[in-house]
Amino acid sequence: MRFAGRVAIITGAGRGIGHAIAVRLASEGARVACVSRTEANAKKTADEINALRADAAKAYAVDVADHAAVQKIGAQILQDFGKIDILINNAGMTRDALAMRMSLEDWDSVINTNLRGAFSFTQAILRAMIKQRSGRIINISSVSGIMGNAGQTNYAASKAGLIGFTKSLARELASRNITVNAIAPGFITTDMTAGLSDEVKKALHAKIPLGKTGTPEDVANAAAFLASADAGYITGQTLCVDGGIVM
Ligand SMILES: NC(=O)c1ccc[n+]([C@@H]2O[C@H](COP(=O)([O-])OP(=O)(O)OC[C@H]3O[C@@H](n4cnc5c(N)ncnc54)[C@H](O)[C@@H]3O)[C@@H](O)[C@H]2O)c1
Questions:
Q1: Which tens digits make up the pLDDT trace of 94-152?
Q2: Order of strands, sheet of 178-185, starting from the edge strand that comes earlier in the sequence
Q3: Which of 14, 70, 87, 187 has the greatest number of CB atoms lying within 10 Å of its CB?
């Protein structure tokens, strides 16, 4: 129970990687704020956690791209839980297209959700975390942000941006005993990758040295480590959870 007494916020907790991280942190004692775009999805994860440990989770619905709404939800979570120890900026989306054909709307929505959303949620809780003089912020980036990926200029730019955001924030907050790290997942089996064609999946598979796709739990393992006391001397880093794609 290494997170007993700790409070964690996980964005995009309704399914996939965010769901796995929320369940993992709660299973090790954390109380968790499950944030999703829809009330139903957030509640599904919170109900699942509360069935294992009563009152361990609460559900919140917000679009992370709505800066004002995120500030309100952040304040609500702080009021409900009384503190914040861990923030996992996981909410993310793709709108793939070749740059030549990409609409400005698809560019903006991906950047505003994946990159600005992380900034907005961080700003919503930062004052409280700084006052507390301890905390962990973990941003879910992607190997696309490190290597690039044809058809994903918007997504890769948002994920590369998150790495720069992570490093700068780590430098700003180190003296306050707050660590900031990123995780770059590779090809993880979730709804986000379910829609890829068999051909694309096969091509991606061929690039993974470990020869298999990852699971949301593989990413949750890394998040739990970076959120734990064991990672207290690690900040500003990007940990690839990708079966060896980036090395
Ligand atoms: N699956 C992969 O292979 C993979 C690889 C690298 C990085 N990632 C990243 O991991 C994170 C989780 O991805 P996943 O595979 O679990 O995807 P997913 O589509 O299954 O889940 C994404 C979650 O984010 C939420 N979300 C999306 N836009 C939102 C918004 N505007 N406001 C609030 N919530 C919003 C969704 O509702 C959903 O719960 C994302 O940031 C994604 O970019 C995934």
A1: 999 999 999 999 999 999 999 999 999 999 999 999 999 999 999 999 999 999 999 99
A2: 57-61, 31-36, 7-11, 86-89, 135-140, 178-185, 238-241
A3: 87
**Nearest atom in ligand 1 to 185's CA:** 6
**Coil/strand/helix, residue 99:** helix
d(CA 178, CA 169): 9
Question: Band of the pLDDT at 200, cuts 50, 70, 90?
Answer: confident
Amino acid at 207: K
Residue 122 lies in a domain: yes
Q: 195 CA distance to ligand 1 centroid (A)?
A: 13
* Full residue range of the structural domain in which residue 201 is found: 7-241
- The answer to whether residue 2 sits within a structural domain is no
SS3 87: strand
Which amino acid type is present at position 141? S
Q: How far apart are CA 220 and CA 96, in angstroms?
A: 25
Q: Is residue 1 part of a domain?
A: no
In the numeric block, which tokens belong to residue 65?
């791209």
Cβ 227 vs Cβ 25: under 8 Å: yes
Q: Is the pLDDT of residue 197 over 90?
A: no
Kindly name the residue from 119, 155, 165, 187 that is annotated as catalytic: 155
**Ligand 1 pocket test, candidate residues 190, 213, 246, most atoms within 8 A of CB:** 190
What DSSP designation does 113 have? Answer: I
> Which residues form the pocket of ligand 1, taking CB atoms under 6 Å from any ligand atom?
11-12, 14-18, 36-37, 41, 63-65, 90-93, 113, 140, 142, 185, 187-188, 190-193
For the chain, what is the domain count? Answer: 1
140 belongs to a structural domain: yes
